[in-house]
Amino acid sequence: MLEQYGVIPVVTFRREEDALPMLGALCAGGLPVAEICFRTDCAKECIEAGRKAFPDMCIGAGTVLSGAQCADALAAGAQFIVSPGYSEEVALLCEERKVFYLPGCATPTEIMRALAAGLTTLKFFPANVYGGLSAIRALAAAFPQMRFVPTGGVSEETLAQYLAFDKIAAVGGSWLVKGTPADAEEAARRAVRIVHEVRG
Amino acid sequence: MLEQYGVIPVVTFRREEDALPMLGALCAGGLPVAEICFRTDCAKECIEAGRKAFPDMCIGAGTVLSGAQCADALAAGAQFIVSPGYSEEVALLCEERKVFYLPGCATPTEIMRALAAGLTTLKFFPANVYGGLSAIRALAAAFPQMRFVPTGGVSEETLAQYLAFDKIAAVGGSWLVKGTPADAEEAARRAVRIVHEVRG
Amino acid sequence: MLEQYGVIPVVTFRREEDALPMLGALCAGGLPVAEICFRTDCAKECIEAGRKAFPDMCIGAGTVLSGAQCADALAAGAQFIVSPGYSEEVALLCEERKVFYLPGCATPTEIMRALAAGLTTLKFFPANVYGGLSAIRALAAAFPQMRFVPTGGVSEETLAQYLAFDKIAAVGGSWLVKGTPADAEEAARRAVRIVHEVRG
Questions:
Q1: CA dihedral A132, A133, A138, A142 (to 10 degrees)
Q2: Relative to the CA of A142, which of A88, B73, C59, C190 has its CA 20 to 30 Å away?
Q3: Residue C66 domain-assigned (yes or no)
Q4: pTM of the model
Q5: In a domain, A134, yes or no
């Protein structure tokens, strides 16, 4: 479900009041999608506010570490769930609720377990630490049925080369939301342009 | 059981008719062993044909991801089973059938799980991505009972330095079977020479 | 419990008679802590002897791979247990005995499993192979509740930069005990000075 965007802005809000300006900026920049990380206490409120204010936006929850956090995120309206690693508990809950789950898998053993659970799109995190595109190429050769969402250390400069590989479903990035909402709107616009250039 | 060869050609056949010429070339080159990957639909037929045509060859199945695939591979006559990661299901089936199982393990946690299941030889894949020989040296220090089969990014140029480390049981390589059967015969001959030079 | 030392000497004794001189040297150097690896048969006796001779020293067992080894280590008086990877069996035994368990976790999936088991300090091993400090920074961003003990390839030269990152609980190192007891005493003294300089 994330393929259509190509790039997923990954954002951690320190304060609830930062959420709507930033999410609005992403929409204005042509990228109506965001992963809001459960790394701060206001994550749940930010998802709720975002879903209400921008009903056409696709808003998911990131850094979901447990079934309890997943239940919170779903109650807030999260449309997809992302974890840095694979959690059986979260996987089962997402399957039950028919919500897209994107767990991070870093090794062939972890990928095989996710495959056995029926998943075919996986986060690859931290992508730059684990060998970047060349690592994904090696893993994709052994798992032709899998598509990957590299996250961590990806930048506007490396976005195009990731997207050019057909096993990349999308790229996760926090670089898009580093500055002000105005910066994010511009960064989103440039990222969308790169997605269109590479994918046609 | 793979130590005696030192090098294991890893081959993915697109068409069943390619199998016998290539397997015959490896035998002619002095390397009567192959891992045939379950990455294509004809893998099962290739193993069956190879076993019948070259009864003295040691033919295993690679990229085995599930118990069902493992059962297929064993039914076709596979003499060993290789997985990119560790699968409990495959491990149990191989133990039951007394077939050598070589799963990929990339982290100390994965190695400990394999050790608890009684395995003492592990694939290390993708070897070049996960730090190559220096990674294997670090892991071998913590797991002196383990021997490794690095696969992925190994080449004729790096074969000798891998084999020189006594914790390397064998090296898996697709470089041997990249070209025509005639190329493979020559590559096998050169690889066998390197194995003899290093191991005496 | 290892934070107060900052550096944990990791030592493998070939002979039981080497233990007391080396442990005494570490105490004399101001670093009354050691992880004694279960990589040699005399590990249990070395822990027992060390605990008796140096009651104020903090002595743990390293390279603990199974519940049986853990029970042996605890019977010998080990005050903490270290594994290269995560073992559920060892984790349960340590929880039951209320002994600090420090397992190695290398991927986000492994970290999430440890977190679900209630652990908040993890070994990161082999640290240099898995990306060193930049890998720990990336993982710590996703797991703000976790603290790490990098081990493997750390040296006196890189100690300060590891310790400067507040998510580093301590650093494990075999460089301290490479030479004679007299060398170790000096190396311990220099390491303690670095810990004080960085942590104040």
A1: 100
A2: A88
A3: yes
A4: 0.96
A5: no
